[in-house]
Specification:
mainly alpha; 60% helix; 0% strand
């Protein structure tokens, strides 16, 4: 694309847009909160219509938020075992309460990492908890 950009025309428009919206790389928690509010307002406005003119702004603000979160609020890498432990806690289950895996001893070995879940166990756990079997892989 050989389009030339008139910087002298672009800068005043950008400055006006930035002043009105505060859309810029997020540098602190207060700006992060404002961008979240803006994203919610944009999502309300677009009502899921992919062709709405504001969808480009949804993408831009969403990417700014995602970049900030990845830098400031990194999520630990989730594993199937962590998901299983979480679901067990949420459902108040003990090791002996998971016949889908096997005996309490087998469950203990799985939770400690000494044994891996097989495909039958993964499918059964997905069905029991109403989640994708991929959750446990």
């Amino acid at each position: 694309m050989n389009a030339t950009i008139d910087i002298q025309q672009l800068l005043p428009a950008w400055e006006q847009f930035r002043t009105i919206t505060n859309i810029a790389p997020i540098r602190d928690e207060a700006h992060y909160a404002r961008m979240h509010q803006m994203l919610e307002a944009l999502l309300d406005e677009t009502s899921g219509d992919e062709n709405h003119p504001a969808m480009a702004l949804v993408d831009i603000v969403g990417e700014l938020i995602e970049t900030y979160e990845a830098r400031r609020h990194p999520q630990p890498e989730a594993t199937g075992i962590l998901a299983l432990k979480f679901l067990m806690e949420q459902h108040s289950l003990k090791q002996g309460d998971l016949p889908e895996i096997g005996s309490q001893g087998v469950v203990s070995e799985v939770l400690s990492g000494k044994r891996e879940l097989n495909i039958r166990q993964v499918r059964a756990l997905g069905k029991r908890f109403g989640v994708s079997a991929a959750t446990f892989i």
